[in-house]
Design a protein that fits this description.
By secondary structure, this protein is an alpha/beta fold. The chain has 8 helices and 6 strands, in the order H-H-E-E-H-H-E-H-E-H-E-E-H-H.
C-alpha cells in the first residue's frame, strides 16, 4: 500500500528521525524505522499502543514483538482466538493475527519512550487513515491514555466526552466501539496495576461485544 510505503519512509518528526538514525548506528541489526501496523487487513479488532519500544518493535519491526509488553498481549490474543501462537519473537516467526490488527499512536521509537505532544499530533494522520478504513462495528482497543486520546483526536472527538478508564467502553459516532485498558507495560504488570485477569476481562468483554454486535453496555 502506498500509505505504508509513505509511513516506512516518514521523517516528519526531526527529533524522532534523528534518534532512529543514532540507534541504527549504535545497533545496525535493529529495524530502527517507523513500525508498520501488523495483522488482518479488515480486522474486527484494532489494538492501538503508544509507540515502539527500544528493544521490542524498534528492534524487530513488528508491534509489541520482542519485549516485555508483548508477552501478556500475545498470550491473551492467542487465548481469545486472535493470534495463531501465544508468543511473538520476530517478523518471520510465522505468527498470524486472526481478525485482529495492531498499530501504535506513534510509529517511531521516542527517546525515553516518551513522545512529545507535537509528535503524537503529527503521527495522528496515519492513525486517522487506519481508523477511517475500518468497517462500522469494529472494536478499537486503546492501551493506555495516550493511545485513547490519539484515537479520539483521529476521530475529531473531545476527550471530555469519552473519558479514559480501564475496561471502559465508548460507542463512537463513526460506528466504531472504543474499549480502554491500562497498557500492558512491564511497569504496569510488575506493580499489579494491570494483572492478567484484568486484561483478560477486557478481552472477554470485547469478545462478547463482537459476538452480539451490540452497543456498549449501559
Amino acid at each position: 500500500m502506498s500509505t505504508e510505503k509513505n509511513l516506512s519512509e516518514c521523517r516528519h518528526c526531526p527529533r524522532l528521525a534523528n534518534f532512529l538514525d543514532e540507534v541504527k548506528v549504535a545497533q545496525p541489526e535493529y529495524y530502527a524505522k517507523p513500525v508498520l501496523p501488523f495483522g488482518a487487513a479488515n480486522p474486527k479488532l484494532l489494538i492501538v499502543g503508544l509507540a515502539p519500544g527500544m528493544h521490542g518493535a524498534n528492534r524487530t519491526g513488528r508491534p509489541f514483538t520482542g519485549d516485555h509488553a508483548g508477552i501478556l498481549l500475545y498470550q491473551t490474543l492467542h487465548r481469545f482466538g486472535f493470534a495463531s501462537a501465544p508468543v511473538s519473537t520476530h517478523r518471520e516467526d510465522g505468527l498470524q493475527l486472526l481478525g485482529c490488527r495492531i498499530t501504535n499512536a506513534v510509529k517511531c521509537l521516542p527517546p525515553q519512550n516518551k513522545p512529545e505532544t507535537a509528535e503524537i499530533k503529527q503521527c495522528n494522520a496515519y492513525l486517522a487513515q487506519e481508523l477511517a478504513a475500518l468497517k462500522p462495528g469494529t472494536v478499537v482497543l486503546a492501551l493506555g491514555n495516550v493511545a485513547h486520546q490519539a484515537v479520539l483526536l483521529a476521530q475529531q472527538l473531545k476527550v471530555k466526552n469519552f473519558p479514559f478508564g480501564h475496561a471502559a467502553c465508548h460507542t463512537l459516532p463513526s460506528g466504531l466501539t472504543l474499549y480502554d485498558s491500562y497498557h500492558c507495560s512491564r511497569y504496569n504488570t510488575q506493580t499489579k496495576r494491570l494483572t492478567a485477569a484484568m486484561f483478560e476481562a477486557v478481552f472477554e468483554a470485547i469478545s462478547s461485544h463482537l459476538q452480539r454486535s451490540a452497543p456498549c453496555p449501559t
